[in-house]
Amino acid sequence: MDMRAEVWSPLQHTAVWLGAWLHGHETTDDLLQALRDLGGRHELIDGRPLTDLLAQLRSVADVEGEDPVLRLVLSGPGEAPALPAGSDAAQKAARNGVGAITVKDNDLISSHVLVPDLAGPLTRWEWFTFTDPLPASAWLSPGEADRLLAEATRQAADIIERSGYRTDALNTPRLTVGALSDFYDTPGLPSAVPGRAAKLFARADRVAAIVETVTARIGDHTLDPQLLSLWRHIRAARMAGVAYAVADFGRAI
Question: Domain extents for the chain?
């Protein structure tokens, strides 16, 4: 199992950059550079260039509404993506290991789902449109998501401590965790990202780095039941942070 794929989300940064661009906080040039840093070369699944996807996104996105125009959709073991059940979009978002981005249409009837397929240095996007409402999201505030993630982390730590688990490798994990935290934050977020969302992303990154340090870098899987229970809260934090950031971009216009 690819641990990093379960705890890191390059699509989180992609969704935030797209939201900042749609609301006029980032230039197209800066957006394109960020997307290259995140996923190499981008194109639509039919071979059309990324600029066609951006033009289509600009034409349909409801940037005037109160709800966030973009949302991040993540899934993992035991948790299906919040997309129409059985749809191609849901199946592909569950298989690709990175999730999907939903887009609220300005016609107030349609919704769109962008599903990336990462193939080495190439990211290929598939665009799906739905006229029925998409499944409701968790609607967590940044504060609620942060609290749940912090509580889950404390509970996992308590369970590990009560188990009497000891290893020399965990005595000095700070350098490894710090390096991984830096990795998760690359290539950075738009300058307009609100502080509450940035804090939530930072906590999710740090918990993700700890999980990866213990399970993948140290190579000890005896703690998997305790650590893997954090995955769901890491995903929830990332989705809540994206929704809050994108909504804030609209309020800041």
Answer: 3-136, 142-238
